[in-house]
Amino acid sequence: MQIDVVTLFPEWFDWFRSQRHIANAAAQGHELRTLNPRENTPLSGGQVDDTPFGGGAGMVLRVDVMDHALRSFYGVDPVDLRRERRVIALTPGGRLLDEGLVNELAAEPAVTILCGRYEGFDERIVQHFCSDAVSIGRYVLAGGELAAMVLCDTVLRKQPGALGHADSAAEESFSDALGGDPEYPHYTRPSEYRGWKVPDVLLSGHHEEIRRWRRARSRERGAASEGSSLS
Ligand SMILES: C[S@@+](CC[C@H](N)C(=O)[O-])C[C@H]1O[C@@H](n2cnc3c(N)ncnc32)[C@H](O)[C@@H]1O
Fold it and tell me: Does residue 115 share a domain with residue 72?
């Protein structure tokens, strides 16, 4: 798949691209490109934002700047771009990113992600250029770059060949293999440490019992996860 990230800070993604699973995905032909609206803004002095109509603090990313950036990059009117590929505005109040949305996006051939900064986007960017508004959680980051990395990470690791072991993604938290429940607990050597013992069943060698035990722990975690982070 091809993911394009529209960001005023493309250099943030240099480190991200060098991470093993992202590099693996790239080696399999998946692309992660960046586009900086400041580089070809039609306004003078590299201007990309402006003060909000109606007053208030902060700066708002301008719709004409985003129009120009997307049009120059893709060679089409951005109003039509969202019919060709998912165009996602990252925003704290958007649709919450979860496993369902990740699977949806991972199946797309091409996605464009718009990172806001400052106060965010002129709303006309979201209304007229975007197919989706996505949030990675109900809190506010300083900008969309980390949210874009979260989205790219979770979508690209789903691509065949991104992870060292294909099995790692098959049976993990929220997967169909676990009925959408969180993953069961893992243990490794030593089998006892400071009196804390690994459950006997995991040392038993009985694969069917281990499978049943894991499924049960996974279900318990699913039931408990409504109100607790440690179960
Ligand atoms: C400081 S935030 C703007 C917050 C906005 N004024 C508000 O109150 O909703 C700047 C940018 O960071 C990104 N951002 C911040 N928190 C985010 C979140 N939880 N999920 C996705 N993007 C987020 C968005 O792109 C946003 O436009």
Answer: yes
